Amino acid sequence: MSGLQACGLLVGIFTSSLGMAASQSDSAGFIEDSHLDLLNRNFYFYRGMRNGSVNNLGANSHKPVSERNGYRSEWAQGLMSYYRSGFTQGTVGFGLDAFAMVGVKLDGGGGTTGTSLMPWGADGHPEQEFSKLGGAVKMQISKTVLKYGEQIPNVPVFSSNQFRLLPSSATGFTLVSNEVDKLTLQAGHFTAASSTDSSHNDGDITTDYTVLPPARAIDYVGGSYQVNDRLSFILYGSQLKDIWRQSYVNATYVMPLTATTALSFAFNLFDTHDYGKAKGGEIDNTSWSFMAGYSFGAHKVSVGYQKIDGDEPFDWAAYEGTQSGAVYLSNAGAVVPFSEPNEQSWQLRYDLDMAPLGIPGLTFMARYIRGDGMDNSNSNNPYYRRIGTYDPDAKNNKEWERNIDVGYVVQSGKAKNLSFRVRQSTHRASSGLRWPDHDEVRVIVEYPISIF
After folding, report:
1. Residues with Cβ < 8 Å from 194, sequence gap 6 or more?
2. What is the pTM of this model?
3. Which of 292, 291, 334, 289 has the alpha carbon at shortest distance from 314?
4. Which of 380, 373, 417 is nearest to 397 (CA)?
């Protein structure tokens, strides 16, 4: 599940746990089971454009191309508060979840905006601050929870974006059931969205490539089954109204070899096809990835292969623009998902957990992903073709991305759980129709606090 970043781990765990409540028979009460959590996030984002690329966003869009800046740079502070009530007692329990968030600009201007940390106005200059407020009512019967309101979804076919200052959210219904041991079933229906840099909650549900018409709604159903501590399966189906129907399959297996060594295998597949009024044009895409890893002591080495089988790219649901959620394909890098039509890609990855070496909380990751074979010359989709047409001579269509990630989490004391993370990304392409060449650095400092 590449693309899930540690900077959003606390929020991701929190949002997932909302549907993982204990049985209604164990409810202690609306107030008695309440929780209030805060997350402070300080985020610095720099992306330098390379090889002639420029920043076309913000105030730059009002300037001649020759006068546009060649980089994006912003620094901001975010504070997120999450309240989760318990359930009233009885056969049917009722409760409330709510969140309040604020983002404050520390540095950045109209010429360097475009990182999606802060919104910008009609003049192209970023706002000094913005806020998000939302909530959902919930009802529990046994181990099944039904919710309606603004939520932070976290499923493979509709995942919140946790990779900026504040998370994206969406308004609708969710149903989460844990009636069967080791089996979690979920369903959802959402009709509006709020992006990472937006204060309103009535935005369109769009797609990552930004070229398809917005959808009136997205529906999904699926679940996960943990066979044992080694083997698990995930299966979901979704419907982006009058755009596509998309299915997702995942299988993960861990094979211990000794007390300190193990093999791991992860397979992901998305199958996407247009349906109904096909407002997004013809779509016929099957995309899959396979990742194999070898863990030994503090180290893990992984290799991955990913294939986009279709003349249209692999695309996924987003929040009123480009801010989609995590990409559940192994070769999705920190910036580039390697999801172009007919693209194939390879990955080599190294992870280091310093805990066995006497430095708990310190981690390191480096990976290199290379893709080639992009070709959309046979596509009949007028929307995706707007991005451009690849040279059918596939040997000339190549791209690569390198990621380096260093993180540290304080393990004890008054600053326990304070985390620091530095992420560096470099991307180069011979045919950069969508992703310009760049060098990027992100610095994220987080401090979670549990009030009660």
Report:
1. 132, 134, 150, 168, 169, 170, 171, 200, 201, 202, 203, 319, 320
2. 0.91
3. 289
4. 373
C-alpha 199 chain-centroid distance: 19
% of the chain with per-residue pLDDT over 70: 93
What CA–CA distances, in Å, run from 265 to 128, 225, 388?
46, 16, 36
* Exposed/middle/buried for residue 122 (C-beta within 10 Å: 0-12, 13-18, 19+): exposed
Task: Convert the pLDDT of each residue in 407-422 to its tens digit.
Answer: 999 999 999 999 999 9
What letter represents residue 362's amino acid? L
Q: What is the rounded distance in angstroms from the CA atom of residue 276 to the CA atom of residue 139?
A: 33
- 251-271 pLDDT, tens digit per residue, is 999 999 999 999 999 999 999
Does pLDDT of 18 surpass 70? no
Q: Which fold has domain 6-450?
A: Porin (2.40.160)
* Tokens representing residue 95 in the block: 């409760």
| Cβ contacts of 94 within 8 Å, gap of 6 or more | 30, 87, 88, 137, 138, 139, 140
Closest by Cα among 351, 304, 334, 359 to 438: 334
Residue 445 in tokens = 């400092």
Q: What Å distances lie between residue 386 and 242, 320, 323, 383, CA to CA?
A: 20, 19, 20, 5
